[in-house]
Amino acid sequence: MNELIYKGEMAKKAAFSLSTLSDEVKNNALIAIANALKNRAEEIISANNKDIAAAEEKGMKKAMIDRLKLDKKRIDTIAQGVVQVAELPDPVGEIVKEWTRPNGLVIAQKRVPMGVIAIIYEARPNVTVDAAALTLKTSNAVILRGGSEAINSNMALMKIMQEAAYSNGIPEGTLNLIEDTARETAVGLMKLNGYVDMLIPRGGQGLIKAVVANATVPVVETAAGNCHIYIDGECDKKMALDILINAKVSRPSVCNAVETLLIDKSIASDFLPEIYRELSKNNVEVRGCEECRKIIPDIIQATEDDWYTEYNDYIISVKIVDGIDEAISHINKYNTKHSEAIITQNQEKAEKFLNEVDAAAVYVNASTRFTDGFEFGFGAEIGISTQKMHARGPMGLEQLTSIKYVIHGNGQIRQ
Amino acid sequence: MNELIYKGEMAKKAAFSLSTLSDEVKNNALIAIANALKNRAEEIISANNKDIAAAEEKGMKKAMIDRLKLDKKRIDTIAQGVVQVAELPDPVGEIVKEWTRPNGLVIAQKRVPMGVIAIIYEARPNVTVDAAALTLKTSNAVILRGGSEAINSNMALMKIMQEAAYSNGIPEGTLNLIEDTARETAVGLMKLNGYVDMLIPRGGQGLIKAVVANATVPVVETAAGNCHIYIDGECDKKMALDILINAKVSRPSVCNAVETLLIDKSIASDFLPEIYRELSKNNVEVRGCEECRKIIPDIIQATEDDWYTEYNDYIISVKIVDGIDEAISHINKYNTKHSEAIITQNQEKAEKFLNEVDAAAVYVNASTRFTDGFEFGFGAEIGISTQKMHARGPMGLEQLTSIKYVIHGNGQIRQ
Lengths: 415, 415
Hints:
Number of strands of chain A: 16
Low-confidence stretches of chain A: none
Largest interface: A-B, 66 and 66 residues
Radius of gyration of chain A: 24 Å
Oligomer: homodimer
Strand content of chain A: 15-25%
Mean pLDDT of chain A: 95
Strand order of the largest sheet of chain A: 10-9-11-8-7-12-13
Shape of chain A: globular
């Protein structure tokens, strides 16, 4: 716990000075960080090699080891991401609204940093740099707690970033990595009230659940995406098929990939065989409802669990529904409020779907894969919020800020 | 727990239909509620009498009994508040922003209801009606859990509101009161994930702390106000005194009242005696630092605890500080991030204070008492947020909403 309190104090102190830094100072520091990462790539790779060796010894899965691995090219990409963050407009200091009250008080709603942001994430060293860059750009201090398997990589990255930032006008204490990898320390960070203004968990369902159950500091839930596509009876079939395949197979491991297809019964017997063929050609396993299996007996029987599952894999569940009302009810029961799409040529049904489906992003005639900071035009993001408070959907720079009411008077007292 | 799950399900179901109701339907229902409350005042008073009798038997404090008491005049005022909420503009459905991406996707950020809002509060029956009106106006379902001492009053109010609302187009399940007054039921409501989109505790420090420690649903912290006024050396003394007295004595029991006076040492020996005289004349007990007591030995010695204390009473703590930097450090160490004021004629110091003090509302040359929904021009509010996520400062109708991204495409897939 000592490390938490110490770094909490440091971060809180730094946050006060950070709030008055100019965009220029912050951008220079970000460029310095990007250059330092590229120039000291050997140092990073050598630390990363230790993590990789330990992971291999522990028998970590190939896909996980791949996410952990850093090489010259990946470090260049990460550094390029930092430069991109520097190039984004700085939201801090913006006057969102300003108005004058009848008594002469001038009230301004001003965008200010959040203060201290904590981020708990898995063994992905690129997140260490992304998160530091986004929080620094928005004048926040950060406390990072990455997966223990990446600790050597994270320590090397943090040291390089700190040296570059602190020698370029950023107050000491702005960038913090929790080096104690014990689970209790992560739980301690979730309860660091008085120091942490916002905690963002970035990772799978298990991590999010642990954070929601344990945290006493304010949390933004992110990431779980059990996304649906509803293919309406009145659709352009070619468009429907293109969108479905894109949403399922362009990157099955990400949160905005589709997991369940709902199809209107009026077109199911005609259209499902073609869909099934195309999915199979793309190596996607199909699990379907009873009605699906009447049309295509080869389809595996879906269980109640399937409707709740975010596969993150080449698997899709399929349900034949009796029109848009059943589609909307199914989605509102099983979804994780991430991204949902309808494919239809009927404007009225499109609007009904957009209004009644409860999710951060609702689409008509487009792939769910677009729920992403870059695709929305926000630039880099820290995650996708799936809750309704504070931020919803892709969290870019603006979502890392708060507001403050700044009031100018000339002696007003309240009657 | 059965009552919680049952009402949670009801509220969640109602929330889906509520999101598409017109402002007209909601306003008609609010007017019907206001009329029903006035017409059925006898029924309310008779239920309230039971609560008052029980409270007197238990030896409840006079001030608390007064907050609990309802009479014809108070019910009229409460009903008038509901009419005022009906008259406010409806934020739901507003397109906050809309833009087109290079690939032709049209992305709109649309204001939507939060869904299900839970509110835990003390034995103040007026909050039952306020909270129901504000959440209904913003198309949210609500689950209320008021202090057990007001249970009969709350049940009568809720029954009348439900009958008026449900016979005027509002879906059943929109308005809910938890009738089980056991503490465990309140804790159960704090953990009702999957049903509650936002929980707002309204009450004293004890309630807020219990909610922060126990809640697993998203919470907005409200209300605690350890507010400061810093009187700078370069100030208009008459203005300083007027503002200080207004902030302390116009209503000492509320969260935006001042609790600590900081005064620049350059004017302390001249000005403090006058301030002390004026505070004493207003029956305010003064607790001061060592330096204060050198000037006025009658002042009671303040302890470290005093700097942390929200008295909510005719008591103030006073500290002589060495200029604006010490004032800002003191405030940022001890405040609850509610409302803070500087009294100065020096523009540069004013801006420094406004920038560097961390609080929801920062004032120059005005009373802290203005942090309030009506005073800001928002109309009725559900509370004052003292955290930085989602909402900060007075929470009006807009702060009871979330946003949703609505995306129109014509077949876009992600490259």
